[in-house]
């Protein structure tokens, strides 16, 4: 089996480790645990899907595999890890995502996710991953209730390259929605989006992207922002939130100026209505958009969607634009829900810290997810192990127990053992097939 070394877990771990080694340590000199080891341990915690920091801490009893696979020389205890990572600036972790992305770009894996006209779909949305009435830190968002009590939360704006035909997604660096330095007021998703797109264009100035977002983003200031960054868009709209737009379309329809068509495919009826060059609302008449409405009819079940886009809509591209718009849910389903329910434990509190720990853990978890997704897209050995295990849950279980029990040299050893079997002679692991 020929592997593209840079796109295996082992290749990506060693690449990331080099990137982590460049992050400036926030602590005084002469530290016991180098920053790179603390960061790499955090990544290993999420790469291994350990259920708690304590479970990871127990791995220090037999540290051989952590040393070999993740290159960690001094393994921190759980409390050391919390203390060190609490002081790390989340923004320092951003370049690590670009490293994974660049490997996928160089390996021509990204190309497979090209959507239409050379563009990639970028699905963007916010999510909450922490909520408490007692535990909090400097960067928590605060909400005051009528009885004067406070609740604290953490949210982040996530973004991933998605494709309607691919289950795997490529997450980009998320933007934490956190209390900003010196700010009295809470941060919000809209401000985080501004920072996110600014940063996106710094990291990927020329990447051809179509941003797909929900109806909250279909407003004039945001569209102008996307245009300023040279980003195309397909944004959800709702009759309840966009009265003017829907009234305008209804008028045009009555006057016979909308285009309607439908066709059947595999027992599903696809119905479209569209109108190009429509003003978004009364107060921003200069913002002109193209409107697409769609009904999917499966027997008695009818699903209805509507979007605005800056692509001129015709009968030739309406179907593609619809699929692009609908792939927005992949940031929720394939990304956030996977992190919450498929072994990563996004909502579990691995430690909150006083400054950045909660955010740093979330960023490292998303990075571990990015590495897994890169393998899912491009590593044949990972794909073979996943197929053999039958589900991600079983794959992670087997990975965890093999990592604890077998002396190994690399993650490839684990995937190979799961995919093809192994036996032990004395203390030597013999892989049944390579
Ligand atoms: Zn907090």
Task: Give a quick summary of the entry.
This protein has 434 residues and is α+β, with helices and mostly antiparallel strands. It is 40% helix and 22% strand.
Architecture overview:
The protein is α+β, with helices and mostly antiparallel strands. It contains 15 helices and 13 strands. A hairpin with a 2-residue loop joins β10 and β11. The protein binds zinc ion.
Strand content: 15-25%
Question: Biggest sheet, open or closed, and with what strands and sense?
Answer: 11 strands, mixed
| Number of helices, where a helix is a run of at least 4 consecutive DSSP H or I residues | 15
End-to-end Cα distance? 7 Å
Helical proportion, percent range: 25-40%
> Which overall shape is indicated by the principal axes computed on the Cα atoms?
globular
Bound molecules: zinc ion
Low-confidence stretches: none
- Rounded mean pLDDT score: 94
Identify the quaternary structure here: single chain
Q: Element order, helices and strands?
A: HHHHHHEEEEEHEHEHEEEEHHHHHHEE
**How many β-strand runs?**
13
Indicate the radius of gyration in whole angstroms: 24 Å
* Helix-and-strand structural type: alpha+beta
């Amino acid at each position: 089996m020929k592997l593209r070394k840079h796109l295996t877990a082992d290749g990506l771990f060693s690449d990331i480790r080099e990137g982590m080694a460049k992050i400036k340590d926030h602590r005084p000199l002469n530290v016991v645990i180098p920053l790179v080891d603390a960061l790499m341990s955090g990544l290993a915690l999420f790469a291994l899907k350990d259920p708690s920091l304590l479970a990871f801490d127990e791995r220090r009893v037999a540290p051989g595999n952590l040393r070999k696979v993740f290159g960690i020389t001094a393994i921190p205890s759980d409390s050391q890890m919390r203390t060190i990572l609490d002081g790390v600036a989340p923004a320092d972790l951003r370049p690590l995502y670009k490293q994974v992305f660049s490997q996928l770009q160089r390996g021509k894996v990204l190309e497979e996710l090209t959507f239409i006209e050379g563009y990639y779909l970028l699905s963007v949305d916010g999510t909450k991953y922490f909520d408490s009435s007692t535990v909090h830190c400097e960067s928590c968002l605060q909400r005051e209730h009528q009885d004067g009590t406070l609740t604290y939360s953490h949210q982040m704006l996530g973004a991933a390259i998605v494709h309607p035909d691919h289950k795997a997604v490529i997450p980009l660096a998320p933007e934490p929605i956190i209390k900003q330095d010196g700010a009295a007021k809470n941060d919000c998703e809209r401000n985080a989006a501004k920072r996110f797109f600014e940063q996106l264009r710094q990291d990927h100035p020329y990447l051809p992207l179509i941003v797909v977002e929900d109806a909250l983003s279909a407003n004039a200031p945001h569209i102008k922002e996307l245009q300023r960054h040279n980003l195309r868009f397909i944004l959800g709209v709702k009759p309840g939130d966009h009265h003017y737009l829907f009234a305008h379309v209804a008028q045009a329809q009555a006057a016979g100026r909308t285009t309607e068509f439908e066709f059947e495919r595999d027992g599903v009826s696809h119905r479209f209505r569209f109108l190009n060059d429509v003003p978004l609302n009364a107060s921003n008449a200069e913002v002109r958009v193209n409107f697409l409405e769609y009904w999917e009819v499966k027997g008695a079940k009818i699903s209805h969607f509507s979007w605005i886009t800056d692509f001129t809509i015709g009968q030739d591209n309406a179907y593609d634009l619809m699929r692009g718009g609908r792939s927005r849910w992949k940031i929720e389903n394939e990304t956030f829900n996977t992190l919450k329910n498929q072994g990563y434990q996004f909502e579990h509190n691995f430690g909150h810290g006083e400054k950045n720990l909660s955010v740093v853990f979330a960023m490292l978890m998303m990075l571990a997810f990015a590495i897994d997704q890169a393998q899912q897209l491009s590593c044949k050995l990972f794909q073979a192990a996943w197929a053999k295990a039958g589900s991600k849950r079983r794959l992670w279980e087997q990975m965890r127990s093999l990592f604890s029990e077998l002396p190994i040299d690399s993650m490839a050893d684990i995937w190979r053992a799961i995919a093809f079997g192994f036996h032990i002679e004395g203390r030597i692991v013999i892989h049944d097939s390579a």
